[in-house]
Structure formats: structure tokens, C-alpha cells
Amino acid sequence: MLVALSGTPGTGKSTVSALLQKEGYNIVNLNELAINRGFVTGIDTERHSKIIDIDGLNDYINDHYKTKDIVFIDGHASHLLRTADKVILLRCHPNKLKSRLEKKGWNKEKIKENVEAETIDVILCETVELHPEENIFEIDATNKNIKSVLSSIIEVVKSNFEPTKKYKIGKIDWSEEVLNDF
Ligand SMILES: Nc1ncnc2c1ncn2[C@@H]1O[C@H](COP(=O)(O)OP(=O)(O)O)[C@@H](O)[C@H]1O
Ligand SMILES: [Mg+2]
Q1: CA 15 to centroid of ligand 2, rounded, Å
Q2: What does the pLDDT look like over 61-74, one tens digit per residue?
């Protein structure tokens, strides 16, 4: 079973993936896989980011990683993989996300782009276009330490991905932050 672990950069995907790995789960880092297997097709010079062949990656992952066991795919494009059976989205309040990305030393432009994307639910919107609602789980990591984020993910797994109110999509709303730009 393939579980896409997505969310705006800075929401904690890679940090929690390391903990999931310690718990014995298999993790694939989408970015690393794209680089190592030749699915980077170019560079977006304006945004200083890699352009990846998501359909090619989708087929590769489908052929090589789709098993009975759970495999988490860590990456902010993992929700774009059609072969993903479930999608877990990490969310973080824009103000907190901003300070996390500042700490990481990212440039202003890139921080703004990502904080805005989180504010207007870009990844969630892309996810609902590709996956049925009952397969999507949203975890608000704003006031959770990373162990607590881990516990939430494990809770979803242990419930066999049973849809629950707790992680139902659409409850998170950062829209009041949009006005702060004016
Ligand atoms: N729940 C959390 N509480 C506090 N700090 C966190 C949490 N999740 C992530 N961080 C910190 O935020 C930064 C970005 O986390 P990272 O796992 O690299 O995000 P992503 O992989 O989603 O881009 C790191 O410095 C990490 O230590
Ligand atoms: Mg990461």
C-alpha cells in the first residue's frame, strides 16, 4: 500500500519520516528517487526548483514499490502520484511555517511562495482533484511536537485508514491570513 506523505515544504514530512523509519516503516523520498532514477527533466530557473516527470515516477513507483506492506512516500509532490492508495497531508499555520522556513535559511521569495501556498490550501486542492476524499487525511501539525505528529500518523495507519472526523479534510482554514497581506 502506497501512502503519499505530502504537505507544503516545512510542514515536517522528512522529520516525521525519519521517525516512521525507526518504527520499521518503509520510506521513499520522492525527490531523491527522481534524481537517482532520472526523472528530473529540467530546472525551473525562476523558482530554483527541479521539474520532475511525475507520470514517469508514478509508473516507476507503481512497478517497484506497490506491495502489501505500507510504503510512505515523502515529498511535497507525492500527492500527485495517482498510484498512491492513501494521502496524508501535514498542515502548519502560515505564521509558524514562515518562522520554520526562516530558520532553515530560505530566501524571502521562496518563503513567501510557500507560505502563500499553505494559506490557500494549494496542496489540498491538488489532492482532491486526484484522490477520493475518503482516502485523504489532514493532520494539523501546528501545535504538535514531531512525536505527536508521528502518533497521529500511526493512529491513521492502525485504524486501517478508516475515515474519521478527526483527520477529515476541510477543517483547517488559514484564510484569515490572506487578508494580512493587505
Ligand atoms: N512538529 C514540529 N515541531 C517543531 N518543529 C518541527 C516540526 N516539524 C518539523 N519541524 C522543523 O521544521 C523544519 C522543517 O521540517 P522538515 O521535516 O524538513 O519539513 P518538510 O520535509 O516537510 O519540508 C525542520 O527544521 C524541523 O526540525
Ligand atoms: Mg522534506
Answers
A1: 7
A2: 999 999 999 999 99
